[in-house]
Queue: 2 jobs
Job 1
Amino acid sequence: MLENKDKSVEDNTKELIENQEVISKEVESAVNEVENMVAENSEKEEKKEEIPMLDYASMELEELVEQLKKLIKNNPIQLIKNNADAIKNAFNIKFGKLLSQKKEEFLAEGGNSIDFQFSSPVKVEYNGLLKEYKVKRDAYYAQIENQLKDNLDKRNVLIEELKSLIENANPRTMYNEFQKIQEKWKAIGAVPRARYNDTWKIYHHHVERFYDLLHLNKDFRELDFRHNLEEKQKLIQRAESLLEIEDINVAFKELQELHRVWKEDIGPVSREFREEVWHRFSEATKKLHDRRHDYFKDLRSKHQEIIDAKLVVVEKINAFDFSKNISHKDWQRSIKEIEALRQEYFNVGKLPYNKSEVVWQKLKQATKRFNTAKNAFYKQEKSAQTDNLKKKMELVELAESLKDSEDWETTTNTMKRIQSDWKKIGHVPRKYSDEIWSRFKTACNAYFDRLNAHRDGVTQEQEAVVVTKKEFLEEFKNAGELSIEQVQEYIQKWRALGSLPRNARHLDGKFNKVVDASLAKLNLGREEIELMKFKNIVDNYLAQEDYRKLDSEQFFIRKKITETVREMQQLENNLSFISNATEDNPLVQNVRKGIGKFKEELDIWQMKLDYLKKLDY
């Protein structure tokens, strides 16, 4: 029998409340929490692919502006919030530092603080982009809010249509009309979360009224009830199986989806099963809710452990002693150690924002002490490097002015002196280093090439040296196995025979090869052999006063040291990625063996460099 047509909305709501299934307060609380989350998610749009987060903190102001411009131009406005916030944070920090620097310069020039003003084209462009982003973002969310309200109005209209259908039922058309209402309901998008649950409950109440009053086609109604019962039983089984999923967050997220499907996609079941299926579904919901509650309770108990461990790291940074740092090398070592402590802080574990902020501020305060001292050092270092650049530029200009001189004796002494002075001057700013070194080396090489060409007029005496050394070289080749003392004696005799003219210096190379072969036959350590071979070559350069080759040799050795250190660091970095492997792991053994070889090579290169540094040339 149909309901009275004059029944008001208030009466319907009252009937709805009176007819709700009776469940325990604990179950009801758990179900309400889940359904409130479903309501909250109802007005959220579907997740889309996230935009990659770049390292904005390392970018300059101009690049940050360019990235913000690309984000706004190439992406939906609702997807760029996280990236836009990261850019905003990086820009404010960098521009704040620039502003502070400009103000400091303004005051240093005698300006009054109250008169200081500063802006720049990049700041103006950034402000314009930020305004554009906010306008588009606000317009988007205003549109979303209007859409949610519009969807709510549409659902309320359908509720009224359903009530009218029940109250003015036409046995021949009512079921088809009801199907149309259901299709329209499912097609309507999200509604405001504050109204989601109430709206659905009223709608569902009238759906159940419709089915209870649907006597026109009992077989069809029972078929529909049976289908809905089967679908709801599947949801119950899935909800019960969620207790077996290890990741509680994944399980709870799926539970919310099950509740949404229960409400939005599946119709009512016959009255005799309604309380039973809802009771089972609610019980499964409560069990998972309780497990999640216990999980977060346990997690909160661990938060204090994480906080305590992080504070221990903060104290290590506070106690870090950098008072003896006097060089770039000292500070680079300290920077690595501080960074390792910071990484230890992060590795301890993550905390929710409301727990992490206090300890995070303590970390920032601890590192600020170190960074202030470091920045002061490098500010002073930058000033010293500027002075060094000025000194080296004076040497460059002097070398370039002398490269065409023919006052051989005076100019040679001057060139040797300025080369020595160059080595005593410290570092210069990196962006100028290669350029001034190239100019200085070119000028010096040009002069010494001319000097060597001047000396290359081969005399009869030099021809005699060539003949004598060729004979001596053959004697050395045929000498057989020699002791270390005998090899050294051959080296001394070779030098005593005199210097070769430039066009015959290839004989020095042949002699060095015989020395290498003789040393290889001796029972000596590799380092000792390498050093003897190296001394033989270098001493020849000294005897010939070939300072360009000595400089080239030193440059080459420094380059090899840098390359060897880089290769070692790469292997050590690789080893950190397989730290869980045991020492007998073949991969670990190979990496450690490689590191050992590089260490041996590094010792030999360093030994050669130390020898060169001791020479006075």
Job 2
Amino acid sequence: MELKQKNTKFLFIVFAFLFIVIYFSLAQFSQLKSYNFLYKLTLKNKIPSSDVVLIAIDDKSLHEIGRWPWKREYYLEIFDYLQNYTNAKVMGYDGLIMAPDLEFPSSDKKFFSSIDKFKNLTTGVAFSYEDFENDVDKNYYDKLLVSKSDVKIIDKRTKKDKTSDFKSFTTLQKEYFENVNSIGFVNVPTDSDGYIRQTAQLIDYKGMLYPSLSFLMYSKYTGIKEFILSDNYIFGFSDKHTLKIPIENKQGMALNYICFYNLKDINYSHDKYSASDVINSYRAIKQGKKPILDSSVFDNKIVFVGANANAQALNDIARTPVSETFSGLDIQATNFDNLLTNNFYKMTSPLYNFLICLFMFVLVFTLISVLPIIGALLSCTTIMLLYMFFALFMYYNKVAIGVILPEVFVVVAIACAYSYRYLIEDNKKVKIQKAMGKYLSYDVMQNVVKNIDNISLGGKRANITVLFADIRNFTSISESMDANSVSMILNEYFSALVPIIEEHNGVLNKFMGDAILAIFGEPKKSENHALDAVKCAYKMLKKVKYLQDKWIEEGKPRIEIGIGISSGEAFIGNIGSQNRLEYTVIGDTVNTASRIENYNKVYKTNLLISESTYEKVKDYVDVIIIKNVVIRGKANKINLYEVIRLVD
């Protein structure tokens, strides 16, 4: 029992170690891959808002308007068209204007001096982990940035994030920076595998919280000027709009998972218009001609302007769960769409992921431990399918749970459980064999186990030696004793003699009351089974002599035994019915051994052997011949031989 408990404890320690190693090795990787896999499966029901549109500087724009870099006054045409010839609500420019246009300085001057006219325009800036360059007036830029973020963030966090490492931001052209009305950051964090799944709404820079481009545009669109940042959410309220963003405060950013939408093509999920069509439409209107685009397509729309072309530095694409070449411009638009419709994904906590994996492991392990193999495997398959459907249901409801790792742990649990069953059942098998060895001869039991798939009625004829030993007058002895004393004597007697039989290559066939029937030559092979039987009998008599002396000292009755041995052919094998078998030996040789043993009472002897046995051992024993004995069941008289001693 102690050994079994130690083995079980060791196995569970191994399984626990295996669980922890697999979990922490695959947790992050599997969670990210689960997100991609299930997101694609549930993408069809995610429809983008028609109120959010894109104007992209694409390959067509470069071909029709001019090579890159563009004159910056082209942007003025786009912004002027949206503000004065459409009913667009707000505009966002996903771009950074950092270097002057040395080729067309007049275009820059016109752009910088006119940008302040567009009150509903928000442009981009990017925070950096590097410090400002030495020639930058950082204090002036920092103060200017504060004035361009017209949003109040009330910080209600109980645990302030101390890990913000942002030290600077892009040094936009000074005149542009001074004249633009509002600026939001365009930083989008990337996961360890290179995919974008999250976006930042707020960034902690030098103790102040700054909004993203989309967040600032949302503030303008809804009129909400005050937001609350808590440990787990960002809140915003107005008469018509309510905002509640589930966030994670991490590394100086308030992060949330993006709810991507069904794709219109591999790069975009929102309606996209070429910048060249917008500019040409603007120019046509100015010339009194019919524009390419009907201005109504931008009525009441939120418009994002940015670049995404195959030209160098314009290929703004990112790897996302929905596309490997998703437009960076559309990531900003998607973020605004999420804010507008309160569409956010919530990722389950690491604790939940750990507990669900542990639950799946324990559940499957338990099922396999108690159920038959078919039922266990069917149950495990059902559990895996049900969990997959549960995961899909959760994703449809915008809760991202891990699916790969829990399914992996179902497989791991199956492997561990069957390993456990194999080891435990192997241990049980050994125990059963030992227990059955108390009812059957160990060698018979081993033969049964070896041929477990071929057990049937039947047997064979073999040349063997049969030993029959019986206690003299045990019936009368037992009548003078209580049942417990009789049992103790028999148990001690059998316990002393059975090992001697096994020691001499014999097989205990059965106990017959106080008698013993043993077989030599089958199923355990021996070169001279007759000699083995005689040596066994001789040693048994010595052991009985020892027991006689011991029992006399203990006040127990003296017993004598008689042994009869015969060699010859007999049937040996399984007899009985299909439902109950017994491995035994039948034939004249067995009967002869039993009847010879009875003659010990007649001739006052202890060990008699038949003539067939004597012929096989005559060179090893001294005997006294008892001639012409009548054996019941035999037509002719035979000689019996009393073994006096063994000869070297």
